[in-house]
Amino acid sequence: MSMKAMKSIAARLIALFLSIALAAGMAGGALAEDMSVSGELVIYSSMYPFVLDMLDEALKAEFPNLVPGNGGSFFVYGGSTSLINEIYADMKVGELSCDMMLVAEPALALELKEAGYLEQVKIDNPSARLRFPFDPEGYWYPVRVCNMVLAYNPELEDEWEAKGVTIPKTFRDFAMDHSLKGLIGMGDPQFSGTTFAALVSLIQANHYGRAYMKKLADNDIQIMSGSASLSAVQSGGLAAVMVLEESVLKKLKDAEDAGEPLTNLRCIYPGDGVILIPSPVMTVAEQRSKNKNVKACKAVEKWFLSEGAQQIILKGYMHSVFADMKSYPYGSVNTDILIQKDMHVNWENAYLAREDINTAWNEIVIKQKQNNRRTDR
After folding, report:
1. How far apart are CA 231 and CA 153, in angstroms?
2. For position 85, which CATH number holds?
3. Structural domain span for residue 314
4. How many domains does the chain contain in total?
5. pTM confidence score
6. 152-175: per-residue pLDDT in tens?
7. Backbone φ, ψ for residue 162 (5° rounding)
8. Which residues touch 204 (CB under 8 Å, ≥6 apart)?
């Protein structure tokens, strides 16, 4: 074999070795700078536990020298409202029991930024990378996007029609079609951050105003968890529910994976628009955080905006925040199409009017439901 041929083969072998090494690194091996990240870390999050399990595993692989600060996990799971209440309690003493947060909507981020509880984290070119709002000063960025929709049982649509009940195709009809009285359900905005965000959107002046809450009360809205509402729709106890798209999609995919596809549950993407709820990542200011480990937090925050993390978000049936992401959750609609139909939420109003809206919900909806129960007796 000639020297030239031998050099050519050697060059090809080196190229092959480098491509394999690069592929291995892209597949999830920790980068050199991530190996240097150490110390403890605690993250508050309202994401479903099965998603947090995937993120936990990925973080441990990416940052092998970082110590999970919650009994072997990086995450403390809780509903948005319960976590917000914990944060409010901690703020009274001036230090939070976490280092980072991934909660349901940006209103809390606006509040904590104003109160001086957040750390700036700079990422490269966020305007080009992200298709959802972020803080231009770097105090918070969206990581995942939840989608509030309606759900129904297509197998029962004709039966409902025969009873004079029309399955709602819009958020407007959901609250205002009197044929649905007592046959609709939703979460409690005082306990669910995403439900609160959806309510804020629907009662905005450019949508249906606060009269929307009165219409929900008049239609005898049933207040229940997402899982209970889906079961009620499937069994025929309710005709339609307002629920997170991800709850429906997960239920459908789990059934399909089990070899028993569901035909009694579907999403309705309302004709008057969907409500997209970006959930931000926030790093707690060093002097306000549990472990005083801002260096690690900044590295992890940037990781949440990596391709690997966003693929986990998609596996969790939520939408990616990346502007160039073509994939979308199993069984869903292209994210860019949903963005065109987004009803939007005034996040500043959600923050400033949180207490007022919760009070109005109690006065208008909860009190009327209590009065109805007394009347029924």
Report:
1. 10
2. 3.40.190.10
3. 28-145+278-339
4. 2
5. 0.88
6. 999 999 999 999 999 999 999 999
7. -65, -25
8. 345, 346, 349
